[in-house]
Amino acid sequence: MSNTNVEIVQELLKGATIPEVVNRLVSPDAVYMSLTYDNPDLKKIMPWAGKYNDGQAALLRTFQDVNIFWTVEEFDIQEIFSEGENVAVFGSFTLRSVKLDKTFTSPFSILAKVKDGLVTYMQYMEDTFGTGLTFRSGGTWKFQSDPAGGEVEV
What we know:
Helix content is about 30%, strand content about 40%. The protein is globular, with a radius of gyration of 17 Å. The chain is of the alpha+beta class. The mean pLDDT is about 95. The strands form two sheets. Strands 2-1-6-5-4-3 form a six-stranded mixed sheet. A two-stranded antiparallel sheet has the order 7-8. The chain is built from five helices and eight strands, in the order ααβαβαββββαββ.
């Protein structure tokens, strides 16, 4: 079962922009969580960010939109393994923003749950600060994170 679940998630990731692949491997009511539960500011620059209960549509829309906003230059799965219905994926990808031609390489992690041959849950995480910077067209941001330090500008 574990190898089968790993193979299902690998096949899904290879074909995540193809409706026939997504519809065959993802439950229609799967939960898909992309980057955050709910972050309105992030959603302004990455409209797919959030938690969705229409897994097939949300997952397909996300991966298709990513390929509109960016050119995916590399997507490398470094580790994938499963235990029971849970599949964990770790890797990195390199994106180039279409609008500003900025490149960033980010780690990613995925938690997927596979039941009866279908993905029923997927949580996708990446370095959204870094990928978001590929859309940054100007200005500075000011932050105060270190309780013992001062303000920093990015």
